[in-house]
Structures
1.
Amino acid sequence: MLRPERGGWFLDCTLGLGGHSEAILSASETAAVIGIDTDAESLEKAAHRLSKFGNRFIGVHSNFKEIDKVLEGRGIKAVRGIVADLGISSFQLAVPERGFSFQHEAPLDARMDRSHGPTAADLVNDLEESELADLIYKYGEERGSRRIARLIVKERAKQPIETTTQLANIVVRALRTKGRWRIHPATRTFQALRIAVNDEIEGLSDFISKAISCLEPQARLAVISFHSLEDRVVKTALRLESGVCQCHSRERLEPGHLIESLEYEESPYEGVTGHNLVSETHEAYSATVRDAVVCQRCGARRRVTILTRKPIRPSAAEIGNNPRSRSARLRVCERVA
């Protein structure tokens, strides 16, 4: 989907161990990649792996939400393609002391960048019960969030909750789950804490807007998400950038709420102003007008064409080879000229 064989600059916004970057660099001798990662340990390993490509690879220790500053600092105005593989990496899961997994006894950390910021243990031990319950429900979509938060507060009063297994056992007790599980009861709680610690959802929509601004005409952005919260944000952001108004139909028909031209000096239709163009449905606008308009309320603007009407999911064979890919969803858009 990224067409790396065309060469040029590409951005790997979530470098990890460099798998995507290696595939891009291997596809063309004229392709070059800037790999961004907030995890210094992953960045070091990826840089070693990709050293064979020489100066065609540049590693940057930064947050992927700062891609505009990363490019500006290197004098690059636009790139041929951008990939963002959201969430946690297999490397981070595989290192027990990082505190992402409850499969091993380890410090309750879960920071991708261990150089700063609060840990998961800080949140678990410091947040008020209501705040903790809201966090677990919002980012983990855990229906038993209030029971979990209540028991956490009760247990931390006895002693601080400092390890992954401590927290996992508390969650199991709170949910009163017995027997064998297809998915461990603590999975959603750990997901919620990881998202909160690393601020994964906040700013994701802004990242997509920045990424599209960094694309050349006909260049593409590919985003892989792994849970419904991420995918919902990505889907909505791409729809807005493709010019699909996200306001409710009734709001579209309110007087004064109209989608006005991005370069609206004079109407091409004599006697017709932007506010006269409201019709019973959003799709009733002419293609010419619709492609050049923005909804002042929701921010819809036509900068991309969405290439994946539905997200691309892994095949059964791929899931067999890589079980962690089972929940992956790939969405791709292309910058319009």
2.
Amino acid sequence: MNDKPAKISTQRKVLLKRRHPSAKLERLAINQLKQGKLPYALASYMELAKKFPKVLAYHIQYSAILYYLGKREAARKAIDKGVAIRPYLFKPTTPDPEGKILRLRGVQKAFFTLDHIGPAYEVKVTGGGFSTAHLMDLGRFWSIDYLVSHGNLPADRRLPSFDIIVNSIADADVEDDSLKTISDFAKMNPDRPLINAPDRVMQTTRDSNYRRLKDIEGIIFPKTYRHACGNFSLDELDRFVQAGDLSFPFLVRESGTQSGKSFDLVASLEALQGRLEKPIQGDYYLIEFIEEKFREKYFRKIRFFCIDGKLYPVVCHVDQIWNVHGFNRLQFMAANEWMVDEEKRFLSDPKGYLGKDIYDRIRSLYEIVGLDFYGLDFTVTGQGDVLIYELNPAMRHSFDHAKNFPYMGRHMQNISDAFNDMIVSRLGRLKLPAT
């Protein structure tokens, strides 16, 4: 779910080329960050944010470095200050846009931080949203990237005009307050198309998905319960586990996280107790572990994106460990030609690969989920049931794997095209004023 909101916008590039007062210092800050000289970059961005307070990008960079260096409280103050002054980045990237997109992201609880890529550092968001970097073609549209926080959006009179709203908040565990703010804003702007209604996003928490999907015939959604972190006696935990009819081993995952690194398989009450004692910002999910082997000794994760009600294949990843995630593709899957062939078959003909009944069953979930964009991770059991691992919009679309698995490229492009076609379709229903 990495996003890079602090890329230099078209406006900033123009200013850097000119003799703008900030240009020299910004070039210095950019180079310091690329070289990993974080204390120097921090000082440079702090100075930029003070001298040019209306440039939100400087506050974002400054806050991201603070957070990465462990200064969480200072990072929150920095981003809150920037958002209070001007909460949006305007990207007029083409002289003849097909429409102006108001892209909404929540930062009331989410943070900006740094992603360490080789010797360089880039800004990303800690959680709560999905990246539109490869979904929205800014060669076709103008984008207004607005940071939602503390109810600011509905009353903001500084907001530039827009044609369509893209709500990129994806995790209600992180940005539930921001979703409520967007819901109020959408009611004030009923004439503007909205992609991913916030009320629908709020229903995609893991425990909510369990409650609404668990009784669908042919669908298996593992038992999922929310539990607070803290110090609990073994007797208290035992009562909770028994009330949920959970059996060891089961999964423990931090709420508000999507990474495969944020959850563990626990095999005893003592292990559960130790995991829940770790200080975190939210709660934990306790999730039933259903071990479904593929070809008797492997594990498989299949992913679809659902865009405007249609399914688009993403991956069919076969692995040797139960925690199937992309970081294992190069080390294991690429070395097994039959696994690659398995994925090629899925990507080329997902309905044929799964069978019509299973494919239609997955597609019918759209009627319940009701989101314009979301992802679904699953496998198919030996009995023909769909075992769902995850369902929400908090899934990253990129071309990263296509660099090493070129056959994926056209399928990833299909996803990008579908998202942009959806935007154009929504704009087509709107009578835009002449510009």
3.
Amino acid sequence: MPRQSSEYTLSHCIGTSIGSGTLLQSSAGNGVYLTPTREGDVGNCTAPAADVRHIVNATGIINVPKFSKPVMDILASNWRVSGILNVASGSAFTVVSGVDAALNGKNALTQYANQVADKVYGNQCTDDLRKSSGFTCLWLNPAAFGRPADGAFGNLRPGTVYGPGNWTLNAGLSRTFRIKEAQNIEFRAEGTNILNHANFLNPNGNITNSQFGRIQSALPGRVMQFGLKYLF
């Protein structure tokens, strides 16, 4: 008989881009709160504990019944098929200026950029992922962001934009073959992302980078493994 279960999670993670226990000032200039008050560094959580609003997980197991015909019984009986579907919306990340616009030496490369237009997302296509130049697919709209004026803080906060969502189907197939009363051979095949679906990572969020707004990487593709175990 098939068995299945599923769950849906709606969440919202809010925090600081730096983390808890960080000082407001530091001579090193890195890993400190950027704005004069901690409130300016509060926003949607970014990696590694990024804000992912929607998550769906579903699992299923099917045990193939025993067949009465000898040939079908040998070939098709007693197989176990399992599957896991993971679906998630995009994760939050921060658009940064890439320069010390604030002129304070704090987090010089990760200070917040300015948002100068409402349409922050581009065409969001991924067709030219491998192009080194002449690309037209942009997840973010470069015209919507700008460098803060010298001595000023950007008007953005952490985690104001979101990357692409993703979904992955993992599956397993197994069966135990009895040789003698106390001897068995177990066969198992497992695959992650068995449909080889492309799950893209967040785009470049540095407005001074020539690849700004462009997706350049993805999660691993299909991975298969097989196993054979002798039990006695």
4.
Amino acid sequence: MKNRFLLTAFLLAIGANAFAQAPAAPAGGRGAARVTRPALFFKEEWKQTEKGGEHPIVFDSTLSNPSLELKVYGPSSKELLLTGDAGNELNPIHVWTGMCTTPCAVAFKHKTAYADLSGLARLRWNTKVSGFHQIRPIVKLADGTWLVGDHTDGTVRDWLFTEFSFGDVRWMKLDINRAVTTGTILDKVDLSKVDEIGFVDLMPGSGHGQGGWVDVAQVEVYGGSVPRTGSSASQ
């Protein structure tokens, strides 16, 4: 009986000592800051002309989001086409690379803010492809560096919404004028201040028919917002 009493007293003493040495809870009873997903940075669904049908991109009226500027890149980027119909899930309004005879890229630039694509930032888009073509994300950093990611999307059978985290993507430098990769996979990339965000088709298009091309409809980017200041806002 005595031994049991001594053992109980010993255990109580250990517990009291551990409690005394435990770190105090933060003021207000709150623990570590909660990691949350970033808000929507921009969304683009494209805008069809009054005539409709398939036609070259009309820069002053193609975008539905007035906060964005549309940029196109690649030697044959003038051959990028807009087609599709609003409300048609089998043929939504989208950009099509089928007539590009070289790799082509499309990017969006927010007029008043850079994007912070660090942390849990992600991209969601509605895409479809033909042949062996794939859609890859591209970004232009605030210092002018262009990068292309190893993540690919696009299914042949149907339009599908897919999304990915920017933090899971490995990046390589991109020669934006030719829309081709250069160098090797980069060890580390800082995406906390991104000037433009878009996509690239690294293969020439095959024209009409089921040959090879990519379609990109709705695009949503979730990330932080970093205000543009001074002259950088108009660059």
